[in-house]
């Protein structure tokens, strides 16, 4: 009879000794739960407590915690690199030089190994197949017949749009000339990817500058939209993961990073409907192979230092 209480105590002790990893993420609740469940299946000894919000709101929460001296998360998994670049500049991210990134494009992770892309979400050109024709380059959009007919998310609102802006302004053949061309066509960037896609799918706009997965899913569900990956390149966000320098569970945090970068983690990305960064993992239906598109990497360190000036110039360009 004494064996049963003793066994119960052992089980309780085992549960109490499990590490608890705290994650802040901007993934949708459904995707975040899938990610956490898959990781915990691989690491049943690590419990994950996660909190989900938009990247901007998560950064506001984190800033408040930093101010109070009570930083809760061990790991961040958010939409874009600019916020992580700012945290890196402040010394708030932990370098993880042993992360297994050998097979990945160098543009998908920080050169100082403080944050790592987990997927490719590129921004391409969507068009309404009933009202518009495909184009080959970004500049091809700037035709007079497209006046007022291009849906463009605002980089003052959308993280993907801000990333796109920083990625293309120094690219020959695109640059600020592209945005000035949009302004001449009476294009008024506004909102995020959702409204832009709705405008193209409904025929209110002929073209849109929109994230790839949104367009591909809409096409699969019957919307009259098609996606173009311009031959002069596409910007992309990588939903990077980073370990905080204040992490209370650094080894568990490294295990989480390792999982996201592993073949199993990358296959999960594909299953969730996004393009994996691992070129050996087959992307979902409707996506090209990673080798078939030209990526335009963004220098996050530079973006951190120039972001204010870039936003101001964007506002001036569109008469704000």
TrEMBL record:
Gene3D superfamilies associated with the record: Periplasmic binding protein-like II
Signal recorded as keyword: yes
Entry GO MF terms: thiamine binding; thiamine pyrophosphate binding
InterPro entries according to UniProt: Ferric-bd (IPR026045), SBP (IPR006059)
GO CC entries: outer membrane-bounded periplasmic space
Gene Ontology biological-process annotations: thiamine transport
First and last residue of the signal peptide: 1-18
SUPFAM superfamilies: Periplasmic binding protein-like II
Signal found in the keyword field: yes
Keyword terms of this UniProt record: Periplasm, Signal
Full protein name: ABC transporter substrate-binding protein
Origin species: Ectorhizobium quercum
